[in-house]
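User: Need the bound-state model for SN-glycerol-3-phosphate:
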Amino acid sequence: MHRPAFIVNHLRPALVLVVALAAAAATLVANSPADASTTSSTGTNPGAVRRANPGGPVVWAHRGASKNAPEETTAAYTRALADGADVLEGDLAQTKDDVLVVIHDDTLARTTNVEEVFPDRAPWNVRDFTLAEIKQLDAGSWWDPAFAGQRILTLHEWFKLNNGRAGLAPEVKSPTRYPGMVENLVEELRAWGYTHSSKAKNGAPQIWVQSFDEAALRQFHALLPKVPTLLLRSGYPFMTANDEVLTELATWTTAIAGNPVQTTASQVARVQSFGLRVVSEVEDGPSILSMIESQGYDYMFTNAPNVAKAALAGKQPLRTNRGVVVDSVVYNPEGSDVASNGGEYVALRNTTDKPIDINGYTLREWGNTLLRVGDGAVIEPGSLYKVYVGPGTDRPNAHFNGLTAPVLADTVTDHLYLYNPDRVMEDLYSYIAS
Ligand code: G3P
Ligand code: CA
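Assistant: Bound-state model below.
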């Protein structure tokens, strides 16, 4: 069929352009972490995946990239941004002079050197120290001396570090300990214009406010009703709550949390059918990640955003692996978990046909306990090397860490992170305990 020159020369290219633009727009929408507002309440249709982001769960960096740097520090958040995390998660506390700071615990003892700097100020509650005193503390060495000098961030500094690049999910932690915490948070959000469901530069929801404290979250919602919220509850009861409870929750909060090793796709879809989003509990390993994805979770917490983002993109998460992997874990052997020359252990495997020098390799468990291999240890080709938690006499293919208390979880899930001597994560292994 002869087409007038104009159609051939101008219209077709224009048509092609329009089609291309439409396709690009569709992809953009599909790949940008959806904002919280696109809920779809089309009634209960168990099993149908109606996730906020068709491209897979939106990745929240739990306390930053907290398995590659000390949690909730500049290093952890900078690493999470570099790893492509969609949202940065952090916990709030309040100082004696009413400044909001980012720290998980109610005290400074676990994640700073406060006991050295202020030995006579036990129990070192955050609320008993001024910001100026807290800024004297080293918040990095506890995790690894290589991070000495990291400081506790204020909420303002955390927002400034992010500078709108990724989403932010502050958790209103223990609000009953900190009078005026919710109002303080609202004031900071207003100062940054984070007062409604907007998008960060990476397309993720700019701001989410979470809490285990329902009263505080309702108070927050009353002050900034357009800001998405996540109501946390230990044991994840909302995943199986009745219609009335879910209907009421959907009138004021945006999301609830579940644990993929305890939920089903139908349960996730049912909650979503009430217009609620579902956030997965903190899970790190590729094996559990695929459960989160297949069950249709909207968002997920992870300590290792590099692994989650790569795995969700179908890529090999840890390309630096030199041939040593975590093969298996014995977390609940007969008898004591720290029995002498026995007990719980992690088995490493040499996946090559060459001996591998593993001197200086370390393992970290979810709770940050560090396990070491024996000095000068070598794994024989295709062989195992056992890293025991408890005491015992080393063997060429086994090392005993001499700890007196068990480390590996006997319930729900646990994770092991393998680092080479340059502190680069080479493997991440998750197991479901019950
Ligand atoms: O905020 C979600 C998850 O982080 C809750 O646990 O103790 O890490 O704050 P936690
Ligand atoms: Ca938290």
